[in-house]
Amino acid sequence: MKPYLVYLIIFYNVGTLITECYDLKRSFVPRLEVLCRLADAFWDNNLLKKTHIHFASRVNWISFDRYVKWLRERNYIECITIDNVELYKLTQEGREMFSVVLNFKEMVNNGGSPIIPSEIF
């Protein structure tokens, strides 16, 4: 068990146990390799079910939920409902962000050294 994780256990009247994990050390920071996998998935298909995005991410469900929340909070993806089926699609901001991620991945894979603009830092 990591020392910076605190577990709150809440008991409901029916005896249901809910465990919520709070990370006190830092907020969620996505990993580049997972964003690359998600970018590849969205680039191949415009509309994806949540399970298809999960399979593409190759992370566990709890981590995956954090990625979806992070992407939605930043308006990179949006959820739409078609025939009672929730589908996710890229927004314009998401297309731009994933384009940068894929370009970076291509440069690294081709042995190039990407130039990161100083205004980012």
How would you characterize the overall build of this protein?
The protein has 4 helices and 5 strands, in the order ββαβααββα. It has one domain (30-120): Winged helix-like DNA-binding domain superfamily/Winged helix DNA-binding domain (Arc Repressor Mutant, subunit A), CATH 1.10.10.10. A hairpin with a 5-residue loop joins strand 1 (5-11) and strand 2 (17-23). It is globular, with a radius of gyration of 18 Å. A 3-stranded antiparallel β-sheet has the order 3-5-4. It has 121 residues and is α+β, with helices and mostly antiparallel strands. Helix 1 crosses helix 2 and helix 1 packs across helix 4 (92-109).
Summary tags:
121 residues; alpha+beta; Arc Repressor Mutant, subunit A; 3-stranded antiparallel sheet; 5 strands; 43% helix
CATH fold name:
Arc Repressor Mutant, subunit A
The shape, in one word, is: globular
DSSP strand (E) fraction?
15-25%
The overall pLDDT average reads 77
Number of strands: 5
Order of helices and strands: EEHEHHEEH
The CATH architecture category equals Orthogonal Bundle
Cα-to-Cα separation, first versus last residue: 33 Å
Uncertain residue segments: 1-25
Name the strands of the widest sheet in spatial order. 3-5-4
How big is the Rg?
18 Å
Percent helix range: 40-55%
Query: Structural class per helix/strand content?
Result: alpha+beta
Level-1 CATH class name:
Mainly Alpha
Biggest β-sheet description? 3 strands, antiparallel
